TrEMBL record:
It comes from Cytobacillus stercorigallinarum. SUPFAM superfamilies: L30e-like (SSF55315). Residues 5-95 form the Ribosomal protein eL8/eL30/eS12/Gadd45 domain. This is YlxQ family RNA-binding protein. It holds the Pfam family Ribosomal_L7Ae.
């Protein structure tokens, strides 16, 4: 997995205001049908992981696990983040190919 690539793309999506971060905000975007992809850090709590993945499954939103919260936060120029929802289909599609 090419870390630099997906991180810079996520940074770009962030600057384009096409993402939301944080568990509650991300879940609310999933519910509204706006989230196209959810990135979840591998070190998220079991509770958070279950809540987010269940929500993704019931709304048919793809999700990917990324190595850790530091990387996820760093990619969007913020503090450590556990959940990031991508709200743009184009960015989501490209991120999915980079994260496979």
């Amino acid at each position: 997995m090419n870390e630099k690539k997906w991180m810079s793309l996520l940074g770009l999506a962030n600057r384009a205001r096409k993402i939301t971060s944080g568990e509650e905000l991300s879940i609310s975007e999933i519910r509204k049908g706006k989230a196209k992809l959810v990135l979840l850090s591998a070190d998220a709590s079991a509770n958070t992981t279950k809540k987010v993945t269940d929500k993704c499954k019931s709304y048919a939103v793809p999700y990917k696990i990324v190595p850790d919260r530091e990387l996820l936060g760093q990619a969007i120029g913020k503090e450590a983040r556990v959940v990031v929802a991508v709200l743009d289909a184009g960015f989501a599609k490209k991120l999915l190919t980079l994260l496979d």
